[in-house]
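Show me any protein, keeping tokens residue-aligned.
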Amino acid sequence: MARLAFTFLIIGLSFGASGQTSEKINHEGHYAFTPLKGWNARISGTDSYVYAPADGAMDPWDEKLEFSITSGENIELDHAFNFYTTVDFPEVYAQFELINQGEEEINGLPAKWAVFTFSGQGTASAATASGDSTISANLQALFYVIKKGDSLYLVNGVTEKNLFARFDSSFRTIIRTFRVKE
């Protein structure tokens, strides 16, 4: 009997140590997601941000996921996705290049995704040796459009291009916890 209780304890600990934290609810946006352990979530209005653990002072970019919501009234998922990947992103992102795309279902909701690269500029938290705080990098992003009723939920995960393979799985794990809260 003690062996049986010990076995259940080990099984329970295994399921409890899944690497995810508690669900975060964006009440204004009517959705929820679950960050990975060590990732920090911030909610602001209908937008949410999930930041990867810091890599140290030598990492000038914050690897993160951004969740947002926009009106999708009278817009099909395919049309919205094509607009972002063929019109909007090529205009907004310098040196935009679509790498891969696909579709899947996330907790019963239709979704389309794309992986793309682009050239980005930002401001470093500390000035460089030359005194300039502007930095440039080749970035890679994972973008999802999730459709529910008249709403489009947009999720964008961005990292430096050379680090994308390291974060792709974590980004997708968090995105796949996405749920609409009615």
